[in-house]
Amino acid sequence: MLKSLSFIALAGALAISAGYADQNNAKVVIAVQKTGPVNGRQMYTSYCAPCHGMDARGSGPVTPALKQKPADLTALARNNGGKYPSSHIATVLEYGTELPAHGNAQMPVWGPVLGRMDQQHPDQRLLRINNLSQYLRSIQTR
Questions:
Q1: What is the number of domains present in the chain?
Q2: Residue 87: which domain range?
Q3: pLDDT of residue 107
């Protein structure tokens, strides 16, 4: 009996220590407000600003929890020879990117949320992508 109690105590201690060791991998949870597909600025504020920041320069409140600092979205055109990369942005918004900060192909937080919205209203997917891309175009710096 003492042997089985010792085994249970050891198993419990291992479980507790594993929990403490995994604290650095904790997921960040952000409250989401569903937005309509027509307002690019509102979509940006709800879905992008937690990571990219309200100023879109990569300084959102979630940034410390990410593997890599998010991109400065105001410099997309400047980093592309002065031309806003419309098709690239549409592709990233639709399919995500393999950047280390994002973990997997989808934007880590919003990919599943936007995907569910699109399943319920598939006609809104392109409208969302276009309007968010147009908002990003409007905030480009030189």
A1: 1
A2: 28-138
A3: 56
